[in-house]
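Appendix B. One record, verbatim.
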Amino acid sequence: MEAMTDTAKTEVKIAESLDGREMIELCDATVAAIEDGGGFGWLTPPPRQVMESYYGGVVLVPGRTLFLGFLDGVIAGSAQLTRPTRNNEAQAAACTLMSAFVAPWARGHGLARELTEAVEAQAREEGFGMINLDVRETQKAAIHVYESMGYVQWGTHPLYARLADGSIVPGRFYYKLLIGESPETPNGE
Protein backbone atom coordinates (compact mmCIF):
# COMPACT_ATOMS: atom_id res chain seq x y z
CA MET A 1 0.00 0.00 0.00
CA GLU A 2 1.46 3.37 -1.03
CA ALA A 3 0.07 6.89 -0.93
CA MET A 4 1.33 10.36 -1.68
CA THR A 5 0.45 13.03 0.86
CA ASP A 6 1.77 16.52 0.18
CA THR A 7 5.22 15.71 -1.18
CA ALA A 8 5.81 12.91 1.31
CA LYS A 9 5.58 9.28 0.26
CA THR A 10 3.96 6.89 2.72
CA GLU A 11 3.90 3.11 2.62
CA VAL A 12 2.81 0.26 4.88
CA LYS A 13 4.38 -3.21 4.83
CA ILE A 14 4.12 -6.36 6.89
CA ALA A 15 7.39 -7.20 8.63
CA GLU A 16 8.33 -10.86 8.21
CA SER A 17 11.68 -10.07 9.86
CA LEU A 18 13.66 -6.96 10.73
CA ASP A 19 17.13 -6.23 9.37
CA GLY A 20 19.60 -4.00 11.21
CA ARG A 21 18.50 -0.74 9.55
CA GLU A 22 14.80 -1.53 10.09
CA MET A 23 15.39 -2.34 13.76
CA ILE A 24 17.24 0.95 14.30
CA GLU A 25 14.54 2.98 12.53
CA LEU A 26 11.70 1.19 14.33
CA CYS A 27 13.32 1.65 17.73
CA ASP A 28 14.09 5.33 17.00
CA ALA A 29 10.46 5.95 15.96
CA THR A 30 9.22 4.11 19.05
CA VAL A 31 11.45 6.17 21.35
CA ALA A 32 10.19 9.41 19.75
CA ALA A 33 6.56 8.29 20.23
CA ILE A 34 7.15 7.23 23.84
CA GLU A 35 8.87 10.51 24.70
CA ASP A 36 5.93 12.37 23.15
CA GLY A 37 3.43 10.37 25.22
CA GLY A 38 2.45 8.49 22.07
CA GLY A 39 0.50 5.71 23.68
CA PHE A 40 2.75 2.78 22.90
CA GLY A 41 2.62 1.49 26.48
CA TRP A 42 6.07 2.26 27.83
CA LEU A 43 6.20 5.39 30.00
CA THR A 44 9.88 5.97 29.32
CA PRO A 45 11.99 4.37 26.61
CA PRO A 46 13.50 1.09 27.79
CA PRO A 47 17.13 0.20 27.08
CA ARG A 48 17.66 -0.39 23.35
CA GLN A 49 18.36 -4.11 23.88
CA VAL A 50 14.97 -4.53 25.57
CA MET A 51 13.21 -2.80 22.69
CA GLU A 52 15.10 -4.83 20.08
CA SER A 53 14.24 -8.07 21.91
CA TYR A 54 10.60 -7.01 22.05
CA TYR A 55 10.33 -6.31 18.32
CA GLY A 56 12.41 -9.36 17.44
CA GLY A 57 9.90 -11.41 19.40
CA VAL A 58 6.87 -9.74 17.84
CA VAL A 59 7.81 -10.95 14.36
CA LEU A 60 8.25 -14.51 15.69
CA VAL A 61 5.10 -14.83 17.80
CA PRO A 62 2.38 -16.93 16.16
CA GLY A 63 -0.90 -15.06 15.92
CA ARG A 64 0.72 -11.63 15.73
CA THR A 65 1.60 -9.54 12.67
CA LEU A 66 3.76 -6.41 12.73
CA PHE A 67 2.90 -3.67 10.24
CA LEU A 68 5.53 -1.02 9.52
CA GLY A 69 4.62 2.50 8.39
CA PHE A 70 7.18 4.32 6.25
CA LEU A 71 7.49 8.04 5.52
CA ASP A 72 9.84 8.78 2.65
CA GLY A 73 11.41 5.34 3.03
CA VAL A 74 12.06 5.59 6.79
CA ILE A 75 10.10 3.61 9.38
CA ALA A 76 7.92 6.13 11.18
CA GLY A 77 5.35 3.98 12.97
CA SER A 78 3.87 0.56 13.40
CA ALA A 79 0.78 -1.38 14.41
CA GLN A 80 0.11 -4.98 15.35
CA LEU A 81 -2.69 -7.36 14.48
CA THR A 82 -3.27 -10.02 17.11
CA ARG A 83 -5.49 -13.04 16.74
CA PRO A 84 -7.29 -14.98 19.46
CA THR A 85 -5.60 -18.11 20.72
CA ARG A 86 -6.80 -21.42 19.25
CA ASN A 87 -8.51 -22.38 22.50
CA ASN A 88 -10.59 -19.16 22.47
CA GLU A 89 -13.29 -20.42 20.11
CA ALA A 90 -15.92 -18.13 21.65
CA GLN A 91 -14.02 -15.05 20.43
CA ALA A 92 -12.55 -16.50 17.25
CA ALA A 93 -14.44 -14.03 15.02
CA ALA A 94 -12.61 -11.01 16.45
CA CYS A 95 -9.01 -9.86 16.21
CA THR A 96 -7.29 -6.89 17.85
CA LEU A 97 -5.40 -3.86 16.59
CA MET A 98 -2.79 -2.96 19.19
CA SER A 99 0.44 -1.08 19.85
CA ALA A 100 -0.25 1.39 17.03
CA PHE A 101 1.81 4.58 16.87
CA VAL A 102 3.30 7.14 14.53
CA ALA A 103 6.41 9.09 15.52
CA PRO A 104 5.73 12.79 16.16
CA TRP A 105 7.91 13.88 13.23
CA ALA A 106 5.79 11.80 10.82
CA ARG A 107 2.31 12.83 11.90
CA GLY A 108 -0.06 14.67 9.62
CA HIS A 109 0.62 12.60 6.49
CA GLY A 110 -2.16 10.01 6.93
CA LEU A 111 0.14 7.23 8.11
CA ALA A 112 -2.01 6.30 11.14
CA ARG A 113 -5.01 5.82 8.85
CA GLU A 114 -2.93 3.77 6.38
CA LEU A 115 -1.61 1.51 9.14
CA THR A 116 -5.16 0.97 10.41
CA GLU A 117 -6.45 0.27 6.89
CA ALA A 118 -3.66 -2.26 6.32
CA VAL A 119 -4.45 -4.07 9.57
CA GLU A 120 -8.16 -4.11 8.66
CA ALA A 121 -7.41 -5.43 5.15
CA GLN A 122 -5.32 -8.29 6.58
CA ALA A 123 -8.02 -9.10 9.13
CA ARG A 124 -10.67 -9.21 6.38
CA GLU A 125 -8.43 -11.38 4.21
CA GLU A 126 -8.15 -13.84 7.11
CA GLY A 127 -11.93 -13.88 7.51
CA PHE A 128 -12.28 -11.96 10.75
CA GLY A 129 -15.69 -10.34 11.15
CA MET A 130 -14.70 -7.81 13.79
CA ILE A 131 -11.70 -5.89 15.04
CA ASN A 132 -11.23 -4.48 18.54
CA LEU A 133 -8.91 -1.83 19.92
CA ASP A 134 -8.43 0.29 23.00
CA VAL A 135 -6.81 3.68 23.43
CA ARG A 136 -6.03 6.16 26.19
CA GLU A 137 -8.47 9.04 26.37
CA THR A 138 -5.51 11.44 26.07
CA GLN A 139 -4.81 10.16 22.54
CA LYS A 140 -7.20 12.65 20.87
CA ALA A 141 -5.70 12.34 17.37
CA ALA A 142 -5.92 8.53 17.45
CA ILE A 143 -9.50 8.70 18.73
CA HIS A 144 -10.38 11.04 15.86
CA VAL A 145 -8.82 8.68 13.29
CA TYR A 146 -10.57 5.59 14.67
CA GLU A 147 -13.97 7.26 14.99
CA SER A 148 -13.69 8.75 11.48
CA MET A 149 -13.00 5.23 10.19
CA GLY A 150 -16.21 3.82 11.69
CA TYR A 151 -14.98 2.39 14.97
CA VAL A 152 -17.73 2.29 17.59
CA GLN A 153 -16.93 3.08 21.21
CA TRP A 154 -18.55 0.44 23.39
CA GLY A 155 -17.06 1.27 26.76
CA THR A 156 -14.65 3.19 28.94
CA HIS A 157 -12.38 2.31 31.82
CA PRO A 158 -11.91 5.16 34.31
CA LEU A 159 -8.51 3.92 35.54
CA TYR A 160 -7.13 2.63 32.25
CA ALA A 161 -3.50 3.78 32.25
CA ARG A 162 -0.82 5.59 34.23
CA LEU A 163 1.09 8.39 32.54
CA ALA A 164 4.77 9.25 33.04
CA ASP A 165 3.79 11.99 35.52
CA GLY A 166 1.96 9.41 37.65
CA SER A 167 -1.56 10.56 36.79
CA ILE A 168 -4.19 8.00 35.88
CA VAL A 169 -6.26 8.48 32.73
CA PRO A 170 -9.39 6.80 31.36
CA GLY A 171 -9.38 4.58 28.30
CA ARG A 172 -11.83 3.93 25.50
CA PHE A 173 -12.73 0.59 23.94
CA TYR A 174 -13.79 0.30 20.30
CA TYR A 175 -14.91 -2.29 17.77
CA LYS A 176 -15.58 -2.27 14.05
CA LEU A 177 -17.47 -4.82 12.00
CA LEU A 178 -15.35 -5.86 9.05
CA ILE A 179 -17.63 -8.28 7.23
CA GLY A 180 -21.41 -7.96 6.97
CA GLU A 181 -23.83 -7.40 9.79
CA SER A 182 -23.07 -10.50 11.86
CA PRO A 183 -19.46 -11.63 12.27
CA GLU A 184 -18.82 -15.28 11.46
CA THR A 185 -16.04 -17.47 12.79
CA PRO A 186 -12.96 -17.00 10.54
CA ASN A 187 -11.98 -19.84 8.23
CA GLY A 188 -14.85 -21.99 9.51
CA GLU A 189 -12.94 -22.87 12.68
